[in-house]
């Protein structure tokens, strides 16, 4: 069987039935294992099949047992079923080609042994098939000239060989009869599976359909008997494969359109998601500002009271009053409270301070205003651009299918960054205030104990 190996794959046109071990310039075997039953010609018009000699029957029994014992499970296409199908086609073609009994026997022997090399190696299996055939035929006392004839027939199924004799043409045509069968597409799937498992080659439905069609268009049958037997069904299968390729292309286009248009159309789910995200960010930002405002007011009052009290006391005779004079240790809790209020109010002010994400490099490089990091819908970004550059950026944004949503996603991201900074500073403010109050209370208690 003609082999389409990984080498031929890289040079062959993309088509659906990529038979990994059977593609040749002359029609190597393509996906679609030869079915055991292949009614290519109406039963009433089909010629009688050639009879198998006793030697052929012995070869049949030997190969059948050999495949049953040694055939790897991963060979889903190149199985005994395929070999039996090729033999059956050879028996049908032999009478049409008016072969002699001796030539018929040689053809059938080559058909039985032509894929036995797959038991040893995938690429170049024809050579191992020749060796197996030679060993078996020699063991059965077949003349060397007949053995060489069978080996030459098997060698002709290699992807790089060109058939020269009528027998070689008949064997290749029988090997490629799968292309003219009604079940050629289902058999092609067997080959596709085999390639994925054995060669690690995977194809999408569209790629496989293209590969199959291209291979079929490049293939031709060589013998007159093969042309007469397969021409009509082969043409019908090519037409069917064209239809299949068109269907695959439509499905692929529809799939791509659905994927690409999802962001271009106002989908309710997407709009709801963005609306919810914006609302959550706004609420969180408002909460952070309110908490910061509360801390600012509270600490501002504390600072004002402490400074006012100390200022009033120091204004009298230049001292801090009898309480502070008699108990200088009380200055420690007062100092801690003042430092606490100052640190807490400072971080709270930083948290409430407006923060605008902007890119200074936009002024120097306005031509990259379409950068995904830039949000042209936000004043902090587009005010860095001139009016002309802003207008061109917006026009480019409107031409892009997902540009609007990209800008919205960018805006949400930077809103999140601002919120993270706000809440980080706010947490620091509350922590300073809490720790400061605890230290103030402890130091005041210690000062009272010290006085007593």
Gap from first CA to last CA = 109 Å
Strands, count: 0
Instruction: Please summarize the sheet with the most strands.
Output: none
Q: From the helix content, strand content and strand pairing, which structural class follows? A: mainly alpha
Roughly how much helix do the residues carry, as a percent range?
55-70%
- The SSE order reads HHHHHHHHHHHHHHHHH
In the CATH hierarchy, what is the superfamily of the largest domain?
Hypothetical protein af1432
CATH architecture of the largest domain, by name, is Orthogonal Bundle
Average of pLDDT: 77
- Tally of helical segments: 17
Shape descriptor reads elongated
Task: Count up the domains.
Answer: 2
For this structure, what is the CATH class of the largest domain?
Mainly Alpha
Q: Assess the beta-strand content as a share of residues.
A: under 5%
Over the alpha carbons, how many angstroms does the gyration radius reach?
Answer: 43 Å
CATH topology heading of the largest domain: Hypothetical protein af1432
Unreliable stretches: 1-46
Could you outline the blueprint of secondary structure elements for this entry?
Layout: H1 6-11, H2 54-70, H3 80-96, H4 101-113, H5 125-139, H6 144-155, H7 166-175, H8 184-198, H9 205-218, H10 224-261, H11 268-315, H12 321-326, H13 331-352, H14 361-364, H15 379-382, H16 387-399, H17 403-451
Helix pairs in contact: 2-4, 3-4, 3-7, 4-6, 4-7, 5-6, 9-10, 11-13, 11-17, 13-17
């Amino acid at each position: 069987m003609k082999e389409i190996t990984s080498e031929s794959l890289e040079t062959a046109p993309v088509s659906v039935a990529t038979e990994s071990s059977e593609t040749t310039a002359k029609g190597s075997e393509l996906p679609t294992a030869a079915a055991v039953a292949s009614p290519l010609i109406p039963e009433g018009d089909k010629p009688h099949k050639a009879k198998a000699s006793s030697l052929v029957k012995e070869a049949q029994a030997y190969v059948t047992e050999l495949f049953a014992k040694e055939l790897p499970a991963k060979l889903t296409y190149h199985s005994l079923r395929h070999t039996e199908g090729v033999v059956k086609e050879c028996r049908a073609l032999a009478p049409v080609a008016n072969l002699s009994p001796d030539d018929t026997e040689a053809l059938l022997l080559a058909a039985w042994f032509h894929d036995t090399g797959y038991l040893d190696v995938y690429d170049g299996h024809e050579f191992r098939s020749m060796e197996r055939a030679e060993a078996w035929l020699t063991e059965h006392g077949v003349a060397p000239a007949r053995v060489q004839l069978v080996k030459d027939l098997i060698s002709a199924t290699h992807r790089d060989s060109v058939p020269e004799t009528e027998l070689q043409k008949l064997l290749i045509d029988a090997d490629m009869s799968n292309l003219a069968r009604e079940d050629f597409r289902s058999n092609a799937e067997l080959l596709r599976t085999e390639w994925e498992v054995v060669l690690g080659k995977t194809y999408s439905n569209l790629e496989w359909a293209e590969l199959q069609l291209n291979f079929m268009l490049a293939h031709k049958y060589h013998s007159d008997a093969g042309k007469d037997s397969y021409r009509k069904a082969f043409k019908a299968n090519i037409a069917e494969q064209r239809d299949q390729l068109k269907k695959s292309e439509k499905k692929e286009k529809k799939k791509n359109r659905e994927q690409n248009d999802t962001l271009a159309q106002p989908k309710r789910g997407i709009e709801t998601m963005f609306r919810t995200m914006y609302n959550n960010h706004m609420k969180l930002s408002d909460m952070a500002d309110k908490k910061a405002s509360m801390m600012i007011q509270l600490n501002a009052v504390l600072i004002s009271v402490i400074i006012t009290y100390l200022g009033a006391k120091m204004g009298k005779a230049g001292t801090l009053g009898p309480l502070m004079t008699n108990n200088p240790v009380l200055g420690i809790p007062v100092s801690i409270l003042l430092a606490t209020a100052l640190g807490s109010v400072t971080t709270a002010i930083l948290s409430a301070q407006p923060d605008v994400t902007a890119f200074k490099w936009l002024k120097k490089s306005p031509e990259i205003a379409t950068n995904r990091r830039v949000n042209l819908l936000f004043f902090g970004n587009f005010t860095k651009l001139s009016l002309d550059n802003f207008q061109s950026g917006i026009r480019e944004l409107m031409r892009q299918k997902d540009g609007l949503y990209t800008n919205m996603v960018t805006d949400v991201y930077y809103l999140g960054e601002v919120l993270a900074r706000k809440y980080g500073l706010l947490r620091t403010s509350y922590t300073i205030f809490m720790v400061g109050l605890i230290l103030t209370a402890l130091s005041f208690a210690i000062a009272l104990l010290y006085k007593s």
